[in-house]
Description:
Blueprint: H1 2-19, E1 27-29, E2 35-37, H2 38-54, E3 59-62, E4 74-82, H3 84-89, E5 95-102, E6 105-113, E7 118-123, E8 128-130, E9 133-134, E10 147-150, H4 160-173, E11 176-178, H5 183-191, E12 197-201, H6 205-217, E13 221-223, H7 231-234, E14 236-240, H8 245-255
Parallel strand pairs: 3-4, 10-11, 10-12
Antiparallel strand pairs: 1-2, 4-5, 5-6, 6-7, 7-8, 8-9, 12-14, 13-14
Helix pairs in contact: 1-2, 4-8, 5-6
Bound molecules: adenosine-2'-monophosphate and calcium ion.
Calcium ion binds near residues 40, 79, 82 and 84.
Amino acid sequence: MTEVLEFTQNLGDELLVKRKGLKSQNIEHKGLHDLVTNLDKYSEKKLVDFLGELVPKSGFIAEEGTSTKLGKEYNWIIDPIDGTTNFVHGLPCFAISIALQQKNKTILGLVHEMNLRESFYAYEGGEAYLNGNLIQVSKTKDLNQSLIATGFPYSDYGKTDPYLEVFKEIMQKSRGLRRLGSAATDLVYVAAGRFEAFYEYGLSPWDVAAGGYILQKAGGLVTEFSGKEDYIFGKTLIASNNFVYDELKEIINKYF
Ligand code: 2AM
Ligand code: CA
C-alpha cells in the first residue's frame, strides 16, 4: 500500500504542475462532450508501468486503454484522471483512482484527490483511511439532514427526464445537492462522512471501483439502482452511509 500511495501522490503533484502548461491542442474529444488530454494518457502510462511491475502478471481495465491485457488472478481498475472536465477548466476537484482485484474481488482501493492532496484508501485486512487517519461514514439517519452528491447525465440523455424527477424530489427532501464532477471523489467523500449519499447513472468501472470499495470499508453501502451488488460494472449507483439508503432508493426507484 505504501508504495502505491507514495507513487500516486508524486504523480498527482506532477500532474498539477503539468496542468498549467495544458494547451488546446493537447485536448481531444472522445465523444461529443467527452474530453481526454495528453496528461490523462501520460498518467495512465505511468500507472500501468508502475503497477504492472509491482504485481507481476497483473492485468488492467483502464479508461484510456493503455493496456487491455487481463490477468488470470490480479487486475487493476484505474482512472488516470477522474474529473477530466474539471482538470481542463481548472476547477479543483479531480483524482487518480486505483483498485486492485484478485479473482474479481476488490482487495485494495485508492483515490487521490490531487488539489487538496487527500489520499483515501483501504485494503483487505485494514480499514478505510484518509492520509493515515481512520475514516467512517456519517451517522445521519434523516434525508432532511443529509447532503447528497450526484452527477448529471453526460451521454445517455434518453434517461434525462427520470433523472430530473429524482433530482427535483431529492432537492426538496434533503439539505442540498452537490455536483463535484468526479465520481471517485464523490464516493470517498461519502466514506469520510462529508456527504450522506451519492447517486449517478452511466458510470464506468474505473470511476467507481476504488471509491466503492473504500466506502464499504468505511461502513457504507453501495449498490446499483436495482439494489443488486454489481455496482462496478452495473452502470448505475447508489452509495450511502447505510442509514439513508432505503429512503433514497425508494425515490430513485419511483422513476428508474
Ligand atoms: P472522467 O472525468 O474520468 O470522465 C461525473 O460525475 C463522472 O462521470 C466523473 O467520474 C467522470 O469521469 C465521468 N464522466 C465520463 N465521461 C464524462 C463526460 N463526458 N462528462 C462528464 N463526466 C464524465
Ligand atoms: Ca478519466
